[in-house]
Structures are given as C-alpha cells and as structure tokens.
From TrEMBL:
PROSITE patterns: THUMP (PS51165). Keywords: RNA-binding. It comes from Maudiozyma humilis. SUPFAM superfamilies: THUMP domain-like. Pfam families: THUMP. This is tRNA acetyltransferase.
Length: 300
C-alpha cells in the first residue's frame, strides 16, 4: 500500500486552535453570559467572538481608535523616559517577528495586553454556559440589545450563530454576599431607579434571578434585598409588576459571583428574552403562516 498523502498547506500557516481562559468570574466584571448546545461550548465561543468583534467595531470604532491613540501616546512618553538600547538589524527583525506572532496568537499575550482585550471568553466549566468578559468602551446591555434588534428584523433571514441560544448582559458583578450585592445595586440600579424623573412618576419593575452552581444566598433573599433598595423605604413610587413591567432587573448568580443588568419591557414582549433560537423559530413560523394564508393563483 502506498504511503498516506501529506496534508495540504504549510503547517506553520495552519489556523491556531481557539482557547478560552479558565477560572472564576472576578468581582466588578462586565460581560455577557451565553447558553449554548450541550458539548458545543467552545464552538459557541468561537462564533460569538467573531460576531461580537464585528459589532463592537461597528458600534464603538471611534471610541476604540481614540483609546488606542491615548495608549500609544502613553507608551511613547514611557519609552522617552527610559534609556534606549541600540539593537542590531538581526535583533530588530527578531523583535518585529515576535510582535507579529503575539498579534496572531492571543494565547501569547502578556497579562497587561490581555487586560486591553475588548472581549475575552472564560471557560466556566459548566455545561451549556459560557461567559464573555468585556471592557470599556463596550456596554454589554447596548451590545446585546443592538444584536437582538438586528436579529428580530423581519428582513434579516441570515442566522449568524449555530450553537448559541440565549444571551444575557451583565453590567457589573460582585462577590456573593448581601453586603456586596447592595453596593452593586447602588452602582448599577441607582442611575436607573433613583432619578428625579423616576421619583415623581414611579417605575413598574420585576426581578429575574438565575442561579447556577450557586447556593450561597437564597433566591428570595436576593429579590427582597433588591426590592428594598429600589423602593428606598417607599421614598420612590416604584411598584413590582411581574407581567407588565417597565424595567426588568436580571440577576445572574454563578459560583461565587453575582451579576446584574437592566432591560426594558421589549426584552420578553419583542425579543423573546434575548433567545436567538426562539427569535428565528418565531420568524420562520410567521413566514410559513403568511404563505399558507395567500390564495393559490390560477394560471390560464
């Protein structure tokens, strides 16, 4: 028998494997939880990374460019303050090659460089759930809402994700304690519920708590704590309304971390609780119903 045919292409040019950082979610982290098909966590992260990066460039391109310019100016000042060493031509080439390799493979980035990444996926070691950590100027609520608006557009029939099911934004997070939860509420909920306009009018709100691998604080204790903070001992005219709310507080609890975000009434009424699969299933169902309603044309 003949020998096996060698694989085509240059081994050095082969696409490097996608890797997710592993570990817990740190306090004060913003990002996006995503549920996905079982045993497809890595594939889901791969397709979301491309999708998020595209939308982030579209939404925050100017801000990212400005931040990059500020970082470059800071680096130049730092370099000017340090004595420079003259490098030979060979050393300069080696340095350039090393920098290109770092850009091509995020796994070789230093801790400082990783901090500058706008999106970084974290392996939660949890079935059907992944987490994408974001940093400024990315606003997780804005990013997810923009994605849902585009996906729900009847004219948009292209499904960009295969394995991803539902997205949940997290504006910030804290360690799993009621004391830290109250501080987080002040940071995330205060600007939404404790304004002069809200004080006069009042807001109908609800709280939705999701817990995974989490038993530190009972669910009702979390809800009661947030309701108490939002109402401020009836200083505000806010009311709990589970069916016809104006604002919904999403609380995601995972291991030692609690994350919070706020969404509007269209979260469930229009965008199917940010469930991509359900949005497309509903869209295709509507199209099928329209086709069946149309009378058959008779050709002469």
């Amino acid at each position: 028998m003949g020998s096996k045919r060698p694989a085509s292409g240059n081994d050095g040019q082969r696409k490097k494997k996608f890797r997710m950082a592993s570990g817990f979610i740190d306090p004060a982290t913003s990002g996006i939880y995503a549920t996905c098909a079982r045993r497809k966590e890595k594939r889901a992260a791969e397709e979301l990374k491309l999708y998020f990066e595209e939308k982030i460039e579209e939404m925050y391109g100017d801000e990212i460019k400005k931040l990059a310019e500020e970082d470059n100016e800071a680096d130049e000042v730092s370099e000017e303050s340090e004595p420079k060493e003259e490098l030979s031509i060979e050393e300069q080439i080696q340095q350039e090659v090393s920098e290109l390799k770092k850009k091509a493979n995020n796994n070789n980035l230093t801790k400082e460089e990783k901090k500058k990444e706008l999106v970084q996926f974290i392996d939660l070691d949890c079935e059907c759930v992944i987490f994408c950590k974001t940093r400024k100027p990315v606003n997780p609520e804005e990013l997810v809402k923009k994605i849902m608006e585009e996906l729900a557009d009847p004219e948009n029939t292209i499904k960009r994700t295969r394995y991803v099911q539902k997205l949940t934004p997290i504006m910030s997070s804290c360690s799993a304690s009621l004391e830290q939860l109250n501080k987080l509420a002040e940071h995330v909920l205060g600007p939404r519920f404790h304004t002069e306009a809200a004080k006069e009018k009042g807001i109908k709100f609800a709280i939705e708590v999701t817990r995974r691998n989490f038993n530190t604080i009972p669910k009702m204790d979390i809800i009661n704590s947030l309701v108490s903070y939002i109402g401020q001992n009836q200083t505000y005219k806010h009311k709990v309304d589970l069916k016809d709310y104006d604002k919904l507080v999403l609380v995601e609890c995972f291991k030692n971390n609690i994350g919070i975000s706020v969404v509007d009434r269209d979260y469930s009424k229009v965008y199917r609780k940010y469930n991509i699969q359900q949005i497309y299933e509903s869209k295709f169902k509507d199209e099928d119903e329209k086709k069946t309603e149309q009378p058959d044309t008779v050709k002469n």
